[in-house]
Design brief:
The complex is a heterodimer of chains A (about 60) and B (about 800).
Chain A lengths: L1 H26 L8 H5 L8 H12 L1
Chain B lengths: L1 H6 L25 H12 L5 H4 L22 H7 E5 L2 E7 L6 H8 L8 E7 L4 E7 L5 H10 L8 H5 L6 H28 L7 H23 L1 H12 L6 H21 L6 H18 L19 E6 L2 E6 L8 E4 L9 E3 L3 E5 L1 H4 L5 E4 L3 E2 L4 E3 L3 E5 L7 H7 L13 H27 L4 H11 L3 H20 L2 E3 L4 H6 L3 E5 H5 L6 E6 L4 H13 L3 H9 L10 E5 L3 E6 L2 E6 L1 H8 L11 E7 L2 E9 L6 H11 L1 E5 L7 H4 L9 E2 L4 H13 L4 E5 L5 H6 L2 E6 L11 E4 L6 H35 L4 H29 L7
Parallel strand pairs in B: 15-22, 15-24, 22-23, 24-25, 25-26
Antiparallel strand pairs in B: 1-2, 2-4, 3-4, 5-6, 5-7, 7-13, 8-11, 8-13, 9-10, 9-12, 14-26, 16-21, 17-18, 18-19, 19-20, 20-21
Helix pairs in contact in B: 8-9, 8-12, 9-11, 9-12, 10-11, 11-12, 11-16, 12-17, 12-28, 15-16, 16-27, 17-27, 17-28, 20-21, 27-28
Classes of the chains: A mainly alpha (about 60), B alpha+beta (about 800).
């Protein structure tokens, strides 16, 4: 049954890593703004200028 | 021209209607030179994705920016206050930018580095309308950044208030950390307690396991007690040491009883303790607290006078204009103010004439004309030509600031004693009596068990559900009210709103819609050329009436008159070909044309028109009442007393006295002080006064009232200190807002009954001595969760019944 002590302590250690990750997330400000990231996900890395030129003209016609 | 307007051509940048054809390039149309410039700037820097993310996202660029305005940003003192931190050549700063409104805004502001090499990183917080920038001080400086932002239509809102203190709240982060710890320990302790619940331990290894898990549980429970629950213990201690009892007192008794009893059981080896219930209890309480903390970051409810003042002024030094922060203005300085700029300090006018718009301070709707040598007061807005002034008082001592500081917030019910806090003393007393009584009874029956029963009662009577019902109900109510136009300062104030029995309205800007004044023309009809000339003459003037006439003649084409001359505060004389136009007040037109104007004396404002020496007629202005006002007042009258307080004259009294139920309910020509006194008088009579106002002239009254609502048409613009901000479009819903706050309070009372039932059930177990850790572990989360669900669902059902929007 000695293995149970090891397993319990090990599981706590793993859980502590996640708690640490949560701490880091809070401290780095990830919980400060829960809205803007939902906007940011819409941005493409790079929209080529050629493509967007046609789009702009299309919209205005 | 009118045909063109019918097709509705919109500016490719900002979506404003395009009136003239001059500003187009390629196949794009622009409403003004400013928008065109921004488009080209973005186009040249490959930033056109801006236009693809959202429809016509730009902000109108009304005029070119004046380089001088931001000169004060070079000042080292100002920089130090604006910059959050500097490390080597990297600096960080953040701006509040009210114009942030869509996806494109976020994208552009986070890609500013393409426009300015010195900007390293930009991060937008959309809800706070805040832009945080990291920049290289070697390559760029604060002034260039602010100028860049202004030039693309995102002018930061730099206010004095911001300069004097910039605090970052870490409260919210701490709450998250506390919640994380409590959740972590709750989960783990519950797992370790499972063998105990199910009686799984075998006799041989029972003792070692008990010691091992007991030790682990104690170690895990300690941070919850010392860190997560510290707010409750501190608050309870503060209350007790001031000989008061709030809701945190019974909660803390429960916390201490739970922890002490569990510690004792484990150390003495008599049981497994209630650590799972303890940590779960704290976990749920903190969730409640997080819900309650929801605030509207982009709205400011506690603005002081500094928010109203500009940050800098143009000072004349040896005939040269120099930009200084208003704090540095000294008595005897000469300042120059342009059209639409606020006067920062009480001064004496040095220009010959000026028009000052005091609507902000007094509520009077028309600008007053001031002559050379007259006193002008801080907070007034210069209309028309630029004016030179001699500062006579420091900003700190000016009329505007005194207005503010003579309204000590002590007049306000400083501490909100909520319903839950009111019943806490009785609750605590009852719990202690029951615990002692059952302890004494058990001493007779079985003395060994008496201590256990005593602590069990304290544990089970802990008002967990009670403590959760208020934050969850009011949290949902806050959300629902905000979806329906009323933004409250904090969840607690909803309770005050529900007690309202008297409502007081301000007039200008509150019940009248400043942007929507009705204009009617009386007199002989004007031909097309005359109308065009009137429009063109009005276009050159900045007087509010001219602007309204200009908008009123929207479809008429404009001309380029040969000469336009404006006599500030009196009228305009325009010449075109052989047509000569005089428009202005009665006196002006009579003097200039030697005509006699016979109009019936009216209480409304009029602008008279004379063309080529003959009198044509006049434009009449009437402030339009907001939509649905009469219905609202009718409904309010059934349940509440209503009053009108106005800084303006009686001219609107005729049409309002029916709505307000007679002249005795209306007060005109009220100074800000008189308004405040009126409210205080009502309050002394024991009334709960709801005050609705909009300008600084109502600030005192709003602060004095039990519940102050600032009404605004643009929630990102500034409003005086208040308990709630109401979107102008939702004024007609005010009676329902109050009704909903009353329902919310009833829901809280109903959930109190529910939680009392849980407490009584628990007490049954406790008194009879059957409160095992398992019973506690089931009962506690069950009561907490059911109260959370009960209150949130019921609040939404009620809102739906009342016809409110309940989802975004």
């Amino acid at each position: 049954m000695g293995v149970i002590f090891f397993l319990v302590l090990f599981s706590i250690a793993v859980a502590l890593i996640f708690l640490g990750a949560f701490f880091w997330a809070v401290k780095s400000g990830q919980f400060d703004d829960q809205y803007t990231p939902s906007i940011r996900i819409l941005f493409d890395e790079k929209i080529s200028s050629k493509q967007n030129k046609t789009q702009t003209t299309n919209r205005d016609s | 021209m009118s045909n063109v307007n019918a097709i509705e051509l919109c500016c490719s940048h900002c979506g404003e209607p395009v009136l003239e054809f001059e500003q187009h390039t390629e196949e794009l149309l622009f409403c003004c030179e400013g928008c065109k410039t921004v488009y080209h700037l973005l186009h040249d820097n490959d930033l056109c994705a801006y236009y693809n993310l959202d429809e016509k996202p730009g902000n109108t660029i009304s005029g070119g920016i004046e380089r001088k305005r931001f000169d004060y940003l070079i000042d080292q003192d100002v920089q130090n206050k604006l910059i959050d931190f500097t490390h080597a050549s990297t600096a960080s700063t953040s701006f509040f930018i009210p114009n942030i409104h869509c996806t494109s805004c976020v994208w552009l502001l986070e890609n500013l580095n393409k426009l300015d090499d010195g900007i390293l990183q930009g991060t937008v917080n959309f809800l706070k309308r805040q832009l945080t920038l990291l920049f290289d001080t070697d390559k760029t400086d604060l002034r260039s950044i602010v100028e860049l932002l202004t030039s693309i239509g995102y002018e930061p809102d730099l206010k004095l208030e911001q300069l004097s203190e910039r605090k970052k709240s870490t409260v919210q982060r701490n709450l998250w950390l506390k919640l994380g710890i409590a959740g972590f320990c709750f989960g783990n302790i519950m797992l370790f307690s499972f063998p105990e619940y199910l009686n799984l331990s075998t006799s041989s290894s029972e003792n070692t396991f008990r010691i091992f898990f007991g030790a682990l549980n104690i170690i895990l429970a300690l941070p919850v007690l010392l860190y997560s629950s510290s707010d409750y213990l501190k608050s309870a201690w503060a209350a007790v040491s001031q000989k008061g009892i709030n809701l945190d007192v019974p909660i803390s008794i429960g916390i201490v009883a739970l922890f002490g009893r569990s510690l004792y059981e484990i150390l003495s080896g008599t049981g497994a303790g209630y650590f799972d219930s303890f940590t779960g209890f704290i976990f749920f309480l903190l969730i409640g607290k997080l819900v309650q903390k929801k605030t509207f970051d982009r709205l400011s409810f506690d603005r002081d006078y500094r928010s109203y003042l500009p940050i800098s002024a143009l000072k004349l030094v040896n005939g040269l204009e120099e930009s200084v922060t208003v704090e540095k203005l000294a008595i005897g300085d000469r300042i120059v103010l342009r059209n639409n700029e606020l006067i920062p300090a009480d001064s004496i006018l040095e220009s010959d004439m000026a028009m000052i718009d005091y609507s902000f301070i007094t509520g009077e709707s028309e600008p007053v004309s001031v002559k050379k040598g007259d006193q002008v007061f801080a907070g007034g807005k210069v209309c028309g030509m630029q004016a030179q002034m001699l500062v006579t008082k420091k900003v700190k001592h000016s009329y505007l600031v005194r207005l503010w500081e003579d309204n000590p917030s002590g007049l306000k019910d400083s501490k909100i004693t909520g319903f839950a806090d009111q019943i806490s003393p009785y609750f605590t007393f009852a719990v202690l009596v029951i615990a002692l009584a059952s302890c004494i009874i058990w001493l007779q029956i079985e003395p060994a068990k008496a201590f256990n029963i005593f602590t069990a009662v304290l544990i089970v009577a802990c008002p967990c559900a009670l403590a959760l019902s208020t934050p969850f109900t009011l949290g949902s109510a806050t959300n629902i009210l905000s979806l329906n136009g009323l933004f409250v300062k904090s969840t607690e104030v909803i309770e005050i709103l529900s007690k309202t029995d008297t409502t007081v309205f301000d007039k200008t800007g509150t019940i009248t819609d400043a942007r929507n004044a009705s204009i009617t023309y009386h007199g002989s009809s004007l031909n097309k050329e005359e109308l065009s000339l009137i429009k063109s003459a009005a276009q050159t003037s900045v007087h509010p009436f001219s602007k309204r006439i200009y908008n009123y003649l929207g479809n008429v084409g404009s001309l380029k008159p040969d000469s336009v001359e404006e006599i500030t505060g009196k009228g305009i004389h325009a010449l075109m070909d052989n047509t000569s136009l005089f428009m202005g007040n009665k006196q002006f037109v009579e003097q200039q044309t030697s005509l006699t104007i016979n109009t019936k004396t009216s209480t409304s404002s009029q602008v008279h028109i004379a063309v080529n020496g003959s009198y044509k007629g006049y434009f009449e202005f009437e402030n339009e009442l907001r939509n649905g006002l009469s219905t609202l007042l009718n409904k309010l009258q059934r349940n509440y007393r209503i009053y009108l307080l106005s800084g303006d004259n009686e001219k609107d009294g005729e049409r309002l006295h029916n709505l307000f139920g007679g002249w005795e309910n209306m007060r005109f020509r009220q100074s800000p002080y008189q308004k405040q006194e009126f409210i205080n008088a009502l309050k002394t009579k024991g009334n709960h006064v709801l005050m609705l106002g909009d300008g600084l002239n109502d600030a005192g009254a709003l602060q004095a009232s039990s519940f102050g609502i600032a009404i605004t048409d643009d929630t990102s613009s500034f409003s005086p200190a208040c308990d709630a901000i109401l979107d102008g479009e939702h004024l007609q819903d005010l009676d329902r807002h109050i009704g909903f706050s009353i329902s919310s309070m009833n829901i809280i009372k109903a959930s109190f009954v529910l939680s009392l039932i849980y407490n009584l059930t628990g007490l049954g177990f406790a008194i009879t001595g059957y409160l095992s850790p398992l019973v506690a572990a089931i009962l506690m989360p069950l009561s907490s969760v059911s109260v959370m669900v009960f209150t949130s669902v019921l609040t939404r059902i009620k809102a739906k019944q009342m016809g409110f929007k309940i989802w975004v």
